[in-house]
Design a protein that fits this description.
Elements (H helix, E strand, L loop, with lengths): L1 H12 L3 H9 L8 H14 L2 H14 L8 H14 L3 H12 L5 H17 L2 H10 L8 H14 L21 H5 L3 H9 L2 H4 L10 H4 L7 H8 L8 H24 L14 H4 L4 H15 L16 E6 L6 H12 L8 E7 L4 H9 L2 E5 L6 H11 L3 E4 L6 H7 L6 E4 L14 E5 L14 E5 L21 E5 L8 H13 L5 E4 L4 H15 L6 H4 E4 L4 H8 L2 E4 L9 H8 L16 H8 L10 H13 L1 H20 L2 H18 L5 H26 L1
Parallel strand pairs: 1-2, 1-4, 2-3, 4-5, 5-6, 6-7, 8-9, 8-11, 9-10
Length: 702
């Protein structure tokens, strides 16, 4: 039984939900204890629904089927999360309050967060705050209790956002100066985001921390940076989004100025402005300020490795926190493999930050040297020691902009030539990154102006994608009309409005999307859609289906049950669009002006599915309705999707072009002594000249 329990725990930690579900079936009911019951609830929440998971969790306690006494705190905390996920505020409040009364620890802080959310809905928020204080947890105990006090002040002053309950007895006041006292606390801002106040109505949230007020002489802490950079997942309007982004830009400029004037430790880079690229078309004004900040922090770490790197056997380093099973690794595994094709001519160096898995091991087995360290600032010196020892000629960063440690390392000169791939498809704005590799079919004509690096276009989609895993269509389930495979944090106000228009045009249609069990996000999404779809007469309670997170075969199975797939605006699907094609659906897309909004359109055009690519919102709407109404069109596109996907999987052109680019860069470094952007520019000019001369030579030979 212990081996079965350990296997179940490993499957849950690895998010292999189908495997976990199968393991649970092998455990007899009399053997269940507190841990197994909690794991069962987590698996059911993802594979079935939060409602099913809650009912099962409660029934186990009622039936007395647990082998050992069930720790109340564990039961109550899990039940509170699931109750919030289904909008049962009173039950959530009851369980969260009981969990908060248990011994202090992380569970108590989590319980108080859930308690505050639920009590705010039931109108007993002040009672929640009073009880929390009776536990000996004053306003200064945790950021979340400070946030409770700020919420109380907002409630009493009549400034609670729409959809949040206001106690009838509340009188306008500032709760003893609480709002004024805590308004600029960065931890409080982060806590307010956790309490989903900022998720549902960010334009009404306390605007903290504002840069002019933060400019007091207090030392900056890593948590301050993380709080400053936090952006809401969802916005009720374009105006709310623009206001928050304007505040963020001011805050980033302040941070850059501060870092240029004082020495800050590497750990201060505790977050990155990752979400900006999802919320604005031209992210460079924000990114340039962020680059100034990171470069100022990183410069004291710089070591003189450049000159010594210009000799010896060619060496290429990959520095990444995503050398494992994930979207970034799926994108670039075929490019990495080309570095091994000539049997030892190039030494591949791996710097794997964080988790390793079978994909990491496959690369590591063929690499000349491997460093695996935690994805943590304390590992930076180990990485620099490794780089100084092996002195790569080229350093590849697959996902600059996604991870703080990778961002910090990319701000240093670790190799003569440094290259960013499009794991995060947006410019780094770092002078130390010489080239940004992208895909020719995806980039618009004016793409060079979208990057601070020299843009290098690989043919087609820029890589060869792996084939999807096998999946089975869900038996006996009714078809869903529309599906959006992209995470709701990609749903900008313009897209949400278009969905409302679409569902108004087809009053009986339903829309499905995918969401991990994160109660604040689900609650925020449902409430925001209620508000935004109200003008169209659309109620998300009847029209929206939310699937929990699952393993990839289950995701593909659910995706295949839809009639029409919809692609998000501004930031399109990537891996999810490939998965959509794999199940026989051509996503209806409206491409943006930047690469990150054009990936789906490029896939469709390469596969001859141009009709699913639209030019404006009205055309997008018409294309979606046409596919819903025309079964024959859907059948034709399903066949075309299979051919499109097969062609993309078979395209060996991008990996070959990547290998040629690598060879040319190594030649420029080792034989011509070129470094940095000079080397990249020389390679691009040579490639352009060869492309011009090749047809002429072919003509003469013929």
């Amino acid at each position: 039984m212990n081996a079965l329990r350990d296997a179940l725990l490993a499957a849950v930690r690895g998010k292999r939900w189908a495997e976990a579900q199968e393991l649970l079936r092998r455990i007899p009911d009399p053997s269940f204890d507190a841990v197994l019951a909690a794991l069962e609830a987590e698996v059911l929440a993802r594979m079935a629904s939060p409602h099913t998971a809650l009912q099962r969790l409660l029934s186990r306690e009622v039936e007395g089927g647990l082998r050992t006494p069930f720790p109340r705190a564990m039961l109550d905390l899990q039940a509170a999360k699931l109750s919030l996920a289904i909008g049962d505020w009173q039950r959530a409040e009851r369980h969260a309050a009981r969990a908060a009364l248990r011994p202090a620890g992380e569970e108590r802080v989590e319980a108080i967060k859930l308690w505050a959310i639920a009590a705010n809905e039931t109108g007993r928020f002040q009672e929640c705050l009073v009880q929390a204080r009776k536990l000996g947890l004053g306003d200064d105990a945790t950021p979340h209790l400070k946030a409770l006090a700020v919420l109380e002040a907002l409630t009493n002053s009549g400034r609670m956002p729409e959809g949040h309950a206001r106690p009838p007895s509340a009188q306008p006041s500032d709760a003893g100066g609480t709002l004024t006292r805590n308004r600029d606390d960065t931890e409080v801002y982060a806590a307010l985001v956790d309490l989903h106040l900022c998720r549902t109505a960010p334009h009404l949230a306390p605007r903290v921390p504002r840069a002019p007020r933060v400019r007091q002489a207090k030392p900056l802490q890593p948590r301050d940076i993380a709080a400053m950079l936090r952006l809401p997942d969802l916005y009720p309007s374009e105006q709310a989004r623009e206001q928050r982004l304007a505040d963020l830009r001011e805050q980033i400029e302040y941070l850059a100025s501060r870092a240029e004037q004082e020495a800050l430790p590497p750990a201060i880079v505790s977050a990155v402005p990752f979400r900006v690229a999802y919320q604005v078309e031209d992210h460079l004004p924000w990114q340039h300020g962020w680059a100034r900040f990171v470069v100022s922090v990183a410069q004291p770490l710089q070591r003189p490795v450049l000159a010594a790197s210009l000799r010896g056997k060619p060496r290429v380093a990959i520095v990444s926190a995503h050398l494992r099973a994930c979207t970034v690794h799926n994108y670039f595994a075929s490019l990495y493999e080309t570095l091994f094709e000539r049997g030892g001519e190039i030494d591949l160096l791996l710097v794997a930050l964080g988790t390793r898995d079978a994909g990491t091991e496959r690369l590591a087995a063929r690499a000349a040297a491997v460093l695996n360290v935690p994805n943590d600032h304390r590992a930076v010196q180990q990485v620099l020691d490794f780089i100084e020892t092996h002195r790569p000629h080229i350093c590849l960063f697959p996902e600059v902009g996604m991870e703080p440690v990778v961002n910090l390392l990319a701000a240093l000169r670790l190799a003569p030539v440094q290259i960013a791939l499009w794991g995060h498809p947006a410019s780094s704005a770092l002078a130390s990154v010489d080239a940004f590799i992208s895909a020719e079919a995806v980039e618009p004509e004016d793409a060079d102006s979208h990057y601070s690096e020299r843009l290098v276009r690989l043919p087609g989609l820029g890589t060869r994608f792996p084939a999807p895993p096998p999946f089975a269509r869900p038996p006996g389930e009714p078809e869903i009309d529309f599906v959006c495979a992209q995470s709701p944090f990609k749903w900008q106000p313009e897209f949400i409005r278009a969905l409302g228009r679409l569902l108004r045009e087809r009053p009986r249609a339903r829309l499905a999307t995918f969401l991990a069990v994160a109660t604040t996000t689900e609650i925020g999404l449902r409430r925001l859609l209620e508000r935004c779809w109200r003008p169209y007469g659309v109620d998300p309670a009847d029209r929206l289906i939310l699937y929990g997170s699952s393993d990839r075969p289950t995701f593909l199975s659910r995706l295949s049950n839809a009639k029409v797939a919809l692609d998000t605006f501004l930031f399109s699907g990537g891996q999810t669009s490939l998965d959509t094609l794999a199940v026989g659906l051509a996503p209806v897309t409206l491409p943006g002006r930047r690469m990150r909004g054009r990936q789906t359109a490029a896939m469709l055009r390469l596969g001859g599915l141009d009709d699913a690519v639209t030019e404006n919102e009205d055309a997008w709407l018409a294309a979606a309705i046409a596919r819903l109404d025309d079964r024959e069109l859907r059948r034709h596109e399903s066949e075309q999707s299979a051919q499109c996907l097969a062609a993309l999987h078979a395209d060996a052109g991008p990996p070959a072009a990547f290998r040629e680019l690598t060879d040319r860069l190594l030649q420029a470094i080792l034989e011509r002594g070129l470094v940095g952007r000079d080397a990249v520019q020389a390679v691009l000019e040579d490639a352009a000249r060869d492309a011009t001369e090749r047809p002429a030579r072919a003509s003469l030979e013929s």
